Amino acid sequence: MATRRVTRRARRPRASRPASDRAGIVRRLRELRRLARGLRRTARAPVVERVAQIIETECHLALWALGEVSAMLPETERRPRDSSGRAGNGPR
Amino acid sequence: MKPLALFRDQTLGARFWNPYTQTLSRAELDRLHLRKLQALIRYAYARSPMYRRLLDRAKVRPAQIRTMDDFEKRLPIIDKQEILEAQAAGPPFGEALAVPEDFFLHRFQTSGSTGVPLHIPLTYYSSLLWGESWVYLYWGIGLRPRHSFYFPFHWGIFAAFWSAYMGVRRLGGTVISGGGLDSKGRINQLLAYRPDVVVVTPTYALYLGEVARQMNVDLRQSGVSIVIVSGEPGGSIPTTREAIAELWGARVYELYGIAELGPTNPGCPLADRVHLCEDWYHALVVDREDRRVPDGEVGEHIVTSYLQHGQPLIKYRTHDLVRWTQAPCGCGTTWTGYPGGVLGRTDHMIIVKGVNVYPSAVEALLHEVAGLSEHYEVHVTWEASNDAVTVKAEARPEVAATAYPALRAEAERVLKEAIGVTIGVEVLPGRSLPRYELKAKRFFDHRPPGHRWQRDA
User: Fold this and answer.
1) Which residue out of B43, B122, B129, B308 would a mutagenesis test of the A interface target, given it has the greatest number of A Cβ atoms within 10 Å?
2) Which tens digit of pLDDT belongs to each residue from A8-42?
3) B279/A64 CB distance under 8 A
4) What is the largest CA-CA distance in chain B?
5) Is residue B188 a contact partner of residue B208, using CB atoms and an 8 Å limit?
6) Separation between Cα atoms, residue A74 and residue A61, nearest integer Å
7) What are the tens digits of pLDDT across the range B31-73?
8) What is the pTM assigned to this prediction?
9) Residue B194: strand, helix, or coil
10) What are the backbone dihedrals phi and psi of residue B187, each rounded to the nearest 5 degrees, phi first?
11) Are strands B342-345 and B443-445 parallel, antiparallel or unpaired?
12) B125, A64: Cβ pair inside 8 Å?
């Protein structure tokens, strides 16, 4: 059976690199929020959906604290269409 | 055992909770405020029937707020009465509400001392931000997750110290509840648990000292190193702050907040002022004609909250008098400072022979008179086309009644010398004025409504 060779470098995800600059932190927070939104859309267990909501809310808070102003509530941000084609409840 | 830590050493030593914004220049802060205000106004117009009506009445659309000047001049200032009326349209929240009730995490209300209580809905996200606003204070004065916080508080329907509790949770500190106990029980609990911090009103901080004395307990032995006061002026009044510091053998800081808005102004680590928490609030200070007062001047505090998502509040009239300044502060932040904290209430404004008299100034001066306790009342009447003020001040219990006339003369001299007008003082025996466990009622206005600056809120 062939074994997949995984080097230490390859296993380390990009996200673990230090992002000491503000722009890098903002980028990583947006990515984290995107992942949380995806989890919310696909979660079947309420416990997981709630955790995803909380992660998304915390990302929203952190982005505001960094001066990245978007909608007032995470729930009212413009969102991409989900897998069913339903549009997000975005703000004007 | 491998050590565990909530924060890494790199952040644990940070001076500010949010180093990104607490040192931005005024121009950068204002640019950021404009974007936040625009987002908030769009949100409120889209979701709150009350704000849609207010803006329509003022003939303003959200898209027309393009500059800070537009915000200051085109948007109306809103008062508590308008929120009450919007709530009355469909109690409890009526047309003031901007989210479905599913979003509520917590409900509060004001005491309704002037008639009808104001209902305050808090969403999950708002509750995080209420807590956040306290953490700027906690972090700035050196508090970290290893510290414990004691709350001698009843945890009722009033917002009071709930937000401070939410802040300890955000920080990661330890909450010790003094709920369900009387003052003696709380003092015993303080001695047993030895918390680092007590969060309390100035009135109750002093009252606990009185009870401790009756129990032969010295609060300086309780291990409390920091007392954080809130809920009423006092923390920024030097003599009151010193009295609390002396009693507890602790450093004293304050946070100024307003129930319906939240914790707007964490105290400065230098303890002589509070700062506007500019991440989550915007503020203006205006004169009687609602014009912005210059830097360094006193006026009414008009606050906009970026965190009341359930019930948005934009340009909300607080009725609090503050002096604001953008001058650099020794603590290093660029956030607006309010030296002396809250100076009084607009509806408590007293003008004696053309001189503005602030009740907080009276409090500070009474503390200078040896032999008077911290308990006092200010009574204002309208006589001969002028405000007339009488101060009822309580003597310390150990002072003999024969010394009252001299005490009265001394208090009147101190007030006259500092304020420049005569204020009558009546000295009362020790323990004759009421005691309070949350906020003290110190101001009694007997003037006809037409002779007050603003009607009571």
Assistant:
1) B43
2) 444 444 444 444 689 999 999 999 999 999 999 99
3) yes
4) 77
5) no
6) 9
7) 999 999 999 999 999 999 999 999 999 999 999 999 999 999 9
8) 0.84
9) coil
10) -65, -40
11) unpaired
12) no
